[in-house]
Amino acid sequence: MMKLGFIGFGKSTNRYHMPFIDAANKFEVTGYYTRGTRQFEMLYPNLNGEIQRFDDVQSLLASPVELIVITTPASSHYSYAKQAIEAGKHVIVEKPFCDTVEQAKELFQLAKQRNVRITPYQNRRYDSDFLTIKNLLARQDIGKVMEIESNHTHYRTDGANQRGNQYDGSVYGHAVHFLDQIVSLYGEPDDVIYDIANQKNYYIGEGLSYQMTNEAETSIPEDHYDIKLVYGNLRIRVRFSQLIVKEPPRWIVNATNATVEKYQIDQQERDLKQGIFLDNPNFGQDTAQGTCTIYFHDHHELIAPIHQHYTQFYLDTYQAIREGTEMPVTEQQALIVMNIMETIVSGRLYQKLN
What's the topology of domain 2-121+315-329? Predict the structure, then answer.
């Protein structure tokens, strides 16, 4: 068993990490540090015995814990990750990994110097909808892929008057997952074309439009993005809005011989929010609306979704640390995603890392 500790012990830890850590059966969760005095109820029971609460980060990092999982607010990710690496711990960092490409480069370089491993927690690489599309992209009968559209639109009107800095918007908080999915397939894009805005505040809140500023008290972070990744002649669109009444297909793939449509995003998050865990045989299963269809010229084909729980992220991480294989997200992939996001929120023209 690998001893694991948390920096941060709120909703993210108990909903998106603990169930899959327990299911992996490779880790002993021995302790955590969290700021403040609030005690969070654990929605999912710890199966490995009592968890110790440490009074400060230094005490946790001085313990026999081998792997640190950071689930604190994003602004503290870089600082805590650096402390953990300097203490000789392997590190998993919740999204977003940090604020800038330079911070990310520093963390990876420091990890190499201290002979430890670090990776961002990109659990959505194990989403059923993504895995289903990934498998279909390899099929020869659909022809050459020309366009891919990754939609994340829904209808949610709360939070219209949100304030924050340039790292608090939907690009760093949301697009990070779906950009990572594309980067895991195709690597570094040749170009990035983007449009971001705050729709909820402008249309249903105070009427202020998106402002690009570092001043938290005056900034209106974006809650809408429309990002196009260019790979030669291939165009990939990643889109998000929270004011769309009828959701479009989660994925649309246009190839020379076929069009693919996949409705509905992976259901693991929905089930976790409802208190449905991995011991339920229906955990993570698509609803009747989650269909995937390939439309050919003269017929269509229904495709069964591919399911793989987020447990696999932790199994892959365990293997990487113990056997020296690649971490679930490589250094280069993490840097590419950071470069895309930093480019967008800063309003720059895209420049490739390589």
Answer: Rossmann fold (3.40.50)
Specify the pTM: 0.94
Report whether CATH 3.40.50.410 matches the domain 124-308+337-346.
no
Which part of the chain has CATH 3.30.360.10? 124-308+337-346
pLDDT at 284: 96
Please list the residue range(s) of the chain that carry CATH number 3.40.50.720: 2-121+315-329
Could you give the CA distance from residue 327 to residue 313 in angstroms, rounded to a whole number?
Answer: 9
- The string of pLDDT tens digits covering residues 17-59 is 999 999 999 999 999 999 865 555 555 555 445 788 999 999 9
Token digits of residue 91: 């590190």
Amino acid at 93: V
Instruction: Express each pLDDT in 115-147 by its tens digit.
Output: 999 999 999 999 999 999 999 999 999 999 999
Q: Give residue 115's pLDDT.
A: 98
